[in-house]
Amino acid sequence: MAFAPVGPEASFFEVLDQHRASLLAALRRGGGEPADGGTRLASSSEVLASIESVIQDVISSLARNKAPVFTIDNRSSWENIKFEDSVGLQMVPHCTRRKIKSDSPKSVKKFALILKILSIIYKLVQSNTHATKRDIYYTDSQLFGNQTVVDNIINDISCMLKVPRMSLHISSTSKGLIAGNLRYIEEDGTKVHCTCGTTAVAVPSNIQGIRNAKFLLIVEKDATFQRLLDDNFCNRMSPCIMVTGKGVPDLNTRLLVKKLWDTFHIPVFALVDADPHGIEIMCIYKYGSMAMSFEAHNLTVPAIRWLGLLPSDIKRLNIPRDTLIPLTKRDQMKLDSVLKRPYVTCQPFWRKEMEIMADSKMKAEIQALTFLSSDYLSRVYLPNKLKFGGWI
């Protein structure tokens, strides 16, 4: 039986409302407009023209008896990445590039696969139809070998054409979930009404209309997300929205978080484990990733704040050491890597939290809070953080 969302008293949201006002003021100072906007898509004619230009270069090379080459921005080097606090990680204008040669034994197969997928994309855009990455893989699974090959080539094509992946008419099956005070219309006109009860719906691949809420909570792990649903958190904190990417977020989950921010400019918070991998996942939502830096404007939400679990919370709440987990060598390497990222310099409070973790050589999962009580996370920890501004 679904519960009607009741939510806390209006005074509960005073600090949240103040935070939202400061976010809007920062947007105005930065020249942004607090209105619906955001994702920059390319028109079908622009995508077709870009593909035709690439193919024309191939034909011209063949006409000159030269081996055709695809030139793609190198997305695997930090040297090609710049950081802007208002956008996140993005590619520098004149970055180093790598060549996919048609006459090289090492790259001839990739060259052929790029051509094949370009042909598929051209037909999709021309006919105004869509396909999933999985659909493309199964057009010739023996040729592609595995799904990862297809995924990487699609990202390379998006980068090469300077076109958002959504504009290529290729989607992926969403792994993320969303719940709370949200109604939206999918691209095909289907009306979806999320609930504040104990169920969630899959993150949509594209949406046209959505309804407002007080805040958005990004939850790192599905297990934590499901526990909050079971504890009726969305109902008690209504109006709010919760989303999880079930670990590292897929493109659809990141696009949805970006869409919600661009549309409503409501406070967005991250709830992740107090470990290096949880912090990195939060950074992907907030500042983006090196691999998708060419599409940063469509994916990043720098306004995200770290709500928990903070390493400093572990000591503050007297969580016993035997509920903590020692950092592995891999954890320490990941933590060192994150501390060197360019965005950490503008986040001194984040750095301090990571240094607390490094000094203690311990990490904690959100589930460590169950030592205090089984529903401490939903009943005490999150409500207090939201009411009194316990985010950084």
What would your notes on this structure say?
With 392 residues, the protein is of the alpha/beta class. It is 42% helix and 16% strand. The chain contains 15 helices and 17 strands. The chain has helices at residues 14-29, 44-63, 108-126, 133-137, 141-144, 147-161, 222-230, 233-236, 251-264, 276-287, 296-299, 311-316, 329-339, 348-360, 376-388, and strands at residues 69-73, 81-84, 88-91, 97-101, 131-132, 170-171, 177-180, 183-186, 191-193, 201-202, 207-210, 215-219, 240-244, 268-271, 305-308, 325-326, 362-363. The strands form six sheets. Strands 10-7-13-12-14-15 form a six-stranded mixed sheet, sandwiched between helices. A hairpin with a 3-residue loop joins strand 2 (81-84) and strand 3. The radius of gyration is 23 Å and the shape is globular. 37% of the residues are buried. The model has no long low-confidence stretch (mean pLDDT 88).
In short:
By secondary structure, this protein is an alpha/beta fold. It contains 15 helices and 17 strands. Strand 8 and strand 9 form a beta hairpin.
